[in-house]
Amino acid sequence: MGRLADKNILITGGNSGIGLAAAQEFDREGARVAICGLNEGTLQAAKETLGAGSLAGRADVSKLADLDAMFATIKREFGHLDGVFVNAGYSEFLPFEEVTEESFDMVIGSNFKGAYFTIQKALPLLRRGSSVIINASVGARKGWPTTSTVSTCKAAVVHLARILSAELVDRGIRVNTLSPGPTDTAMFGRFAGEEQGEGVKDILRINNPSKRMADPLEIAKLAVYLASDDSAYVVGADFLIDGGVTAISGVGA
């Protein structure tokens, strides 16, 4: 029996990167998994890697109508939820003065608005003892250039988890965040050209005390812990998993 046996868990953005690794690891640990994302092709490919009874559906988490439709399907098929991994997000890295209203709305819509209303609309399905995990970032603690929208969102969801913990703890629902450092996902394919994306990854590796990026599976294993009853006493916490980039200063090295 896995650590998530008999649990029904939703993973937003579960069709790629950390979300896909989490969906597969949750499945291996015995959970019945529902995933959502924007790309129908990758959603169905991801579903084929999961066990019988899993769900996969297209949903834009920044659109409340999509969330309503998704949760209606989950209620019909699962009946209830025991956990949500709020993972869906969109990143764009621009100097402050180059951020447009369109870019701002896309980043805020997926990373903060989407997280906020995903949790709100999941509440009627969450049983006592449920776990809500929000995928934040070390960017919430670092003043990195070009991250004025995405890192601000990540800082917001870290604090949101504390506030929701205070509101939901009496219902037996735990809310926590995990904050990955640079992780080797397809996000780097969005840079202008494969060479530039690989160059960014090289810089991130060199400047990390561990001299590497995280594998998505490493983040997924932490998410399993937070979704499981092993973490029943963990409430309102933020878990750094960043290779030391937050704790260790490069000054004097």
Automatic annotation (TrEMBL):
Keyword Transcription regulation assigned: no
UniProt key word Oxidoreductase: yes
Keyword list, A-Z: Oxidoreductase
Pfam families associated with the record: adh_short_C2 (PF13561)
Family: Belongs to the short-chain dehydrogenases/reductases (SDR) family.
Protein name: Short-chain dehydrogenase
Biological source species: Bradyrhizobium iriomotense
